[in-house]
Amino acid sequence: MKFLRKADIDIYNLIKKEEKRQAETLMMIPSENIASKAVEEAVGSSFGNKYSEGYAGRRYYQGNTVADEVELLVIDRAKKLFKVAEVNVQPHSGSPANFAVYTALLKPGETLMGLALSHGGHLTHGADMNASSIYFHSVPFTLDNEGRIDFQELERLAKKEKPKIIIAGFTAYPRIVDWKKFAEIADMVGAYLMTDISHISGLVAAGVYPSPVPYAHVVTTTTHKTLRGPRGAMIMVTEKGLKKDPDLYKKINRAIIPGIQGGPHLNSIAGIGVALKEDSKKSFVTYANQVVKNAKALAAELNKYNFKLISGGTDSHLILIDLRNKNLLGKTAAEGLEKVGIILNMNGIPFDPNPPLYPSGIRLGTPGTTSRGMKEKEMKLIARVMNQTINEVAKTKERMKIDMEQEKKRSVRQQILAETKSLGKLQKEILTLCKKFPIKKVY
Ligand code: DSN
Q1: Closest Cα partner for 314 from 194, 217, 203, 228?
Q2: Which of 86, 133, 215, 272 has its CA 20 to 30 A from that of 48?
Q3: Distance of CA 30 to the CA centre of its chain
Q4: Which residues are catalytic?
């Protein structure tokens, strides 16, 4: 970064600071990952200078012959990797990708059904305050008491509400989804089945998580999670989708531009292409397998430490923990873990008695640590440090006689963490682990 360093020392220093933060902590937010140097170079390339509204062969501006080549190449790679009929690689990220599908298939006020935000669905799956429920009629479905999708309720609601789209997708669901069951219900009521595989697309590409492609009409995904690419997204149209609606791809393309976006980010598209090539390698299959093995190992250890895992465990990269038996809010636990270098997020749990800003759970995952080469042995260490951290913080809270209402105050949480003296020692353990597994970004 010699040019940046000379031109703008402030931004250069902040980038270096963030690199150091990432190097010295564990990336355990399940939607984050460490893209390769090759991906970074493509994203930083001259493609970022070009405007390319439209699609290959039909651009509004001149100078797009190379843009056409790169976009078609990336589409081709995505089609092959996911075995789909058509792909749009232009969505700037997951939220516009999902909104484009709704724009393509629904008129304002028509009905969509997605997993409730409080049960692990995404904001864009019809959550209150999101455009997906402002402009469309959203009927959420939920999980059962075991933390699994409640297909009986879904079927009952679908028959009653006759949605035009059923969304099978999530940000906090650790289990394998029964795509076939979703398809049966969608087909029963004549709905489009849209699957949002943002979290698991890398696992699907590698064949370590079942593909929804034979069952869905449309599949959306971001490209920066388990897929390990740059920030961006794709909308895939399946053979089944084209059978239901031969104009489906055209409708999706029109919804992206002129519907909701202008020019595509060609530099990100080039980066997605690089990632898709990496994702086609045998080594990526090994990586994706290890992501799941690590998550299962971590879940097993956490169970031993009496953590209450939603659904009891995981089949994927993701773990959701109900912390109520540990007497700590998710926020306090996440902040305490950040102090020791374990970066994860607070999260709502199904039927959470606490409000969304002070939820009862935490969510974590293994894509980032697996990209650094960590395996089951390291997961054991991480589980132990998590357990010690949470126990120590909870003990301090008890000693200070702090109740949950007080715990919601930032200053009180800071006080609890400052009084928990053992965090420094635990942080050193995590730092040593990070140093043993440096971030290389070469896969
Ligand atoms: N923020 C992402 C996640 O963490 O799941 C989804 O947009």
Answers
A1: 203
A2: 86
A3: 6
A4: 51, 53, 196, 222, 225, 231
CA separation (Å) from 266 to 75, 79, 156, 230, 269?
Answer: 12, 18, 44, 12, 5
User: Count of alpha carbons within 13 Å of 264, Cβ hemisphere only?
Assistant: 33
Looking at 25-147, list the stretches that DSSP marks H as alpha helix, in order from N- to C-terminal side. 37-43, 65-82, 94-105, 131-134
Question: 171 CB under 6 A from ligand 1?
Answer: yes
Phi, psi for 223 (deg, rounded to 5): -115, 0
Residue 319 pairs in a beta bridge with 364
Mean pLDDT of 386-409: 97
Q: What single-letter amino acid sits at 8? A: D
CATH class as words, domain 41-279: alpha beta
Total Cβ atoms within 10 A of residue 284: 20
Segments making up each domain of the chain, as ranges: 41-279, 282-436
Tokens of 33: 């990952």
The rounded distance, in Å, linking the Cα atoms of 320 and 116 is 16
Q: What is the pLDDT of residues 232-266, one digit of tens each?
A: 999 999 999 999 999 999 999 999 999 999 999 99
Q: Which helix (H) or strand (E) holds 88?
A: strand 86-88
Q: What is the DSSP string of 211-270?
A: -STTT-SEEEEESSSTT---S-EEEEE-HHHHHH-TTHHHHHHHIIIIII--S--HHHHH
Strands 111-113 and 137-138: parallel
- 195 backbone dihedrals φ, ψ, rounded to 5°: -110, 130
CATH 3.90.1150.10 fits 282-436, yes or no: yes
Q: What is the pLDDT of residue 184?
A: 98
Residue 94 beta carbon below 6 angstroms from any ligand 1 atom: yes
pTM for the structure as a whole: 0.97
Q: Give the residue, out of 29, 115, 122, with the most ligand 1 atoms within 8 A of its beta carbon, to mutate for a pocket test.
A: 122
Q: Contact at 8 Å (CB) between 177 and 150? A: no
